[in-house]
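Q: I'm writing up a methods section and want to include an example of the input and output format. Could you take the sequence below and give the corresponding predicted structure tokens, formatted cleanly so I can copy it straight into the document?
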Amino acid sequence: MTATVGDVMTTSVVALREEADYKQIVTALHRYRVSACPVVDQDNRVIGLVSEADLLLKLTDPEFPPGLERLNWRLHQDNKANALTAEQLMTSPAIAVHPWAPLSEAARQMEQWQIKRLPVVDQDERLVGIVTRSDVLSVYERPDADIWNEVTKVIIDQEFGLDPDTMEVTVRYGIVTVTGSVEQPEVALRLLARIRHAEGVIGVRDRMSYPRAN
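A: Here is the clean output for your methods example:
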């Protein structure tokens, strides 16, 4: 079974109300040792994310760029430099993910937006948890024995209809080595691709015998 965000997320979340002031935000980040917090409205719906980077703008004194760039800076960055509440400081809308989404979706969002954590929301956009890069990577802690069982009993036997007794599968530190004979090269290649995307698999070593293109 593919791991979902709900399987690894943290349900005890440090969240801030939109009216939280600058000092309250700093205190929350420091006390709970987090670098960012989701911001929620009165219905617990996620409306943004406030981070240490947002707070640091108040301490910086950047040079004003000229012309239209200067105007754009004053309309955006200057607002945050003078912001007093979470609503004024936060980045909005927040990039969020649902608990039923596969971990690969959370990983894609984090990579695309270059962020370290995602608020997890239900179908009504209410906050139910938070998932971090570390949570997503925890899938690679899956025991080798569990991977072996899935590859042998589920993928090879049930999904591909091959006889697992005619194939040898070993798993060591998440790396799967497959040995055996398969008559059709397309079946062998699809099998290897499927194993590569099994939960917790770090790499696949192809030791199978099948017709190969010249």
